């Protein structure tokens, strides 16, 4: 409250001050100045003093006490599925549209940027680096141990330059002049030394020095030699604000992050991975939304560092995080509002994982991570639900980009402690998801019998912070999630065998995999159950073998276009079919073709639709005729 009114006072003062000052500068109303020079100078001196003392006060009070309006103040009841105007209001606050004006500055370090642009060598400027063929043995060994091409990493400078692939709007963006300080927490286990050190350099070289309190390398009981003395020596010799903290036994990712957080002394905690590279000016966009509201959590855009050749590239231009009801991480498309403002933070229902910034106060108010979560898994949901339900906000900041090596494979053995992921998920579902937990158990029945351990402490945090129910989160934050990932799958439009009228043969996909074609076979009912002939024309409007997530896919539109099996993407497009009930045709709207076959070769393909052709007529064993007709009349895509 106090800070709020102080800010407003400051703004008024600043407004008067800047008007007076610009008049003096630009000679507008000079005659007034001559007449009242003395008064004006007095005015200027007074307001300068006011500003100076105000800023001093503001800075010394604490940046974080600028508390926001909470979501609950004027709650709007909404039908699920509509974006919540209340949320948008909060983001306008983050966008600084309704907040008092704070002084901003351009945080780019142009000297450093220019110097980086001149760098040349292997992998420089984020380019792909290909090893020469004669190092294959060494390469293979390091690959096995790391799940990425660590030998290539060793040949690339620890301080290489990478491509600035931010949206052009980011280049002009200014951020407030006073930002909180940050402690970086990097948990690692047997990380390759050069990728670990490159992560550290990318932070220190591309963040303003005054904002970095420290980098805390948190060792989850590594066994590799290079992670021990050689790391300590390097850190001692090259850095002044990098600490190595070590776990006494193997703790897993979650408790290792907690251990790092306990050693942090900066105002904001920034959790990162141990094989990343931070891009130009990544830090101010992460800190500003937190300075505006200490309960805001900010995630960077995560780019891809190629595991084979270390090329730096974008994975996409942003999406919102979500989950399906087996608790797999999924993504939702951006809202129209954020497409129009590509450099502005947007609400994110679920964080992608290990890369995010959170104020230290808010992290510990939330109780950190649930320390009962073991090894890894579920922690991104736990923290995301907790942040939203307990009065916080989470955004993605498109102008903060950090590259990450997605490994080709996991090089670590299974920790051998049973189904820790299932147990973690059960803890999260039990503490945060209320009646929606039931949908998770319906998809993963064995979770019902998992013992989640003691939940008293976690439930007490929820009670103490007076957190909202999960139904609120679903209605207001993840409002469009059920459209893409419905908790109860709607029934299919048709199922069973698909029989061709002209040949009296059935489609048989024979349990084939991706990119494979399939043919007609004698219907298994008549022959006694061979092959794979049970299908679902699913609510996604695709056709798939029953209980599999592989779909009929057509990507050409010429006669005899092949139909292949491809991972179901659920986004319709080239996997979208319609059924013409009267004509018995299986129609593919995007290509405008109909499913056809050759009675001789038994091949299946797409052909221009011909209502008289018997080979284009198909019958589903169990059609829902009403639903099929309704679907045929509807637009092709949702
Ligand atoms: Mn990683």
From TrEMBL:
Q: How does it sit in the membrane?
A: Single-pass type II membrane protein
Main location per the UniProt record: Golgi
Please state the pathway this protein functions in, per its UniProt record: Protein modification; protein glycosylation
Query: What compartments host this protein?
Result: Golgi apparatus membrane
| CC terms in the record's Gene Ontology section | Golgi membrane
- Quote any Pfam family the record assigns: Ricin_B_lectin
Question: Which top EC class is given?
Answer: transferase
- Which InterPro entries has this protein been placed in? GalNAc-T, Glyco_trans_2-like, Nucleotide-diphossugar_trans, Ricin_B-like_lectins, Ricin_B_lectin
Q: Which domain of life is it from?
A: Eukaryota
| Cofactor dependency | Mn(2+)
Q: Which GO terms describe its biological process?
A: protein O-linked glycosylation
* Segments passing through the bilayer: 6-28, 40-64
Catalysed reactions, semicolon-separated: L-seryl-[protein] + UDP-N-acetyl-alpha-D-galactosamine = a 3-O-[N-acetyl-alpha-D-galactosaminyl]-L-seryl-[protein] + UDP + H(+); L-threonyl-[protein] + UDP-N-acetyl-alpha-D-galactosamine = a 3-O-[N-acetyl-alpha-D-galactosaminyl]-L-threonyl-[protein] + UDP + H(+)
What EC number(s) does this enzyme carry? 2.4.1.-
Q: Which GO terms describe its molecular function?
A: carbohydrate binding; metal ion binding; polypeptide N-acetylgalactosaminyltransferase activity
What are the entry keywords? Disulfide bond, Glycoprotein, Glycosyltransferase, Golgi apparatus, Lectin, Manganese, Membrane, Metal-binding, Signal-anchor, Transferase, Transmembrane, Transmembrane helix
- Protein family membership: Belongs to the glycosyltransferase 2 family. GalNAc-T subfamily.
Its protein name is Polypeptide N-acetylgalactosaminyltransferase
Native species of this protein?
A: Lymnaea stagnalis
- Which taxonomic lineage is given here? Eukaryota, Metazoa, Spiralia, Lophotrochozoa, Mollusca
């Amino acid at each position: 409250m106090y800070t709020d009114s102080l800010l407003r006072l400051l703004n008024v003062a600043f407004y008067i001050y800047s008007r007076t000052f610009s008049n003096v500068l630009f000679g507008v109303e000079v005659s007034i100045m001559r007449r009242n020079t003395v008064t004006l100078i007095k005015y200027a001196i007074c307001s300068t003093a006011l500003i100076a003392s105000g800023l001093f006060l503001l800075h010394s009070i604490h940046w974080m006490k600028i508390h926001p309006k909470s979501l609950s103040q004027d709650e709007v009841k909404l039908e699920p599925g509509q974006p919540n105007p209340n949320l948008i209001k909060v983001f306008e606050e983050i966008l600084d549209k309704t907040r008092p004006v704070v002084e901003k500055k351009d945080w780019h370090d142009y000297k450093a940027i220019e110097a980086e642009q001149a760098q040349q060598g292997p992998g420089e400027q984020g380019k792909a680096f290909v090893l020469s063929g004669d190092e294959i043995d060494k390469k293979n060994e390091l690959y096995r141990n790391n799940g990425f091409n660590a030998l290539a990493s060793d040949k690339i400078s620890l301080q290489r330059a990478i491509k600035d692939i931010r949206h052009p709007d980011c280049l002009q963006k200014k951020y407030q002049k006073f930002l909180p300080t940050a402690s970086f927490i990097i948990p690692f286990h047997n990380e390759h030394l050069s990728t670990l050190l490159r992560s550290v350099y990318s932070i220190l070289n591309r963040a303003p020095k005054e904002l970095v309190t420290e980098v805390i390398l948190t060792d989850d009981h590594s066994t590799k030699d290079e992670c021990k003395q050689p790391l300590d020596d390097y850190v001692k010799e090259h850095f002044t604000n990098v600490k190595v903290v070590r776990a006494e036994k193997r703790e897993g990712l979650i408790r290792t992050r907690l251990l790092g957080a306990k050693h942090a002394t900066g105002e904001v905690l920034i959790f990162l991975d141990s094989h990343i590279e931070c891009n130009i000016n990544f830090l101010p966009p992460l800190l500003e939304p937190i300075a505006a509201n200490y309960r805001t959590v900010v995630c960077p855009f995560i780019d891809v560092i190629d595991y084979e050749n270390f090329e730096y590239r974008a994975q996409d231009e942003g999406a919102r995080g979500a989950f399906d009801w087996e608790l797999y991480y999924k993504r939702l498309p951006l809202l129209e509002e954020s497409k129009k403002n590509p450099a502005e933070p947007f609400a994110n229902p679920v964080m992608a994982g290990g890369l995010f910034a959170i104020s230290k106060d808010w992290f510990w108010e939330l109780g950190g991570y649930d320390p009962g979560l073991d090894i890894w898994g579920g922690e991104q949901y736990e923290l995301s639900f907790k942040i939203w339900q307990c009065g916080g906000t989470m955004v993605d900041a498109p102008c903060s980009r950090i590259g990450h090596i997605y490994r080709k494979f996991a090089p670590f053995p299974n920790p051998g402690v049973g189904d820790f992921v299932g147990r973690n998920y059960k803890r999260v579902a039990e503490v945060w998801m209320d009646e929606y937990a039931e949908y998770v158990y319906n998809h993963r029945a064995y979770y019902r019998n998992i013992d989640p351990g003691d939940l008293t402490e976690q439930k007490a945090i929820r009670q103490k912070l007076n957190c909202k129910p999960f139904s609120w989160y679903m209605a207001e934050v993840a409002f469009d999630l059920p459209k893409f990932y419905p908790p109860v799958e709607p029934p299919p439009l048709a199922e069973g065998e698909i029989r061709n009228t002209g040949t009296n043969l059935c489609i048989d996909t024979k349990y084939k995999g991706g990119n494979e074609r399939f043919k007609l076979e004698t219907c298994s009912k008549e022959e006694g159950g061979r092959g794979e002939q049970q299908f679902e024309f699913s609510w996604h409007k695709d056709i798939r073998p029953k209980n599999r997530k592989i779909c009929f896919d057509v990507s050409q539109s010429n006669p005899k276009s092949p139909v292949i099996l491809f991972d179901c993407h659920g986004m319709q497009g080239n996997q979208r079919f319609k059924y013409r009930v009267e004509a018995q045709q299986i129609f593919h709207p995007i290509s405008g073709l109909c499913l056809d076959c050759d009675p001789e070769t038994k091949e299946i393909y797409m052909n221009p639709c011909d209502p008289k052709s018997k080979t284009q007529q198909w019958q589903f064993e169990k059609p829902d005729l009403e639903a099929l007709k309704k679907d045929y009349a509807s637009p092709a895509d949702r």
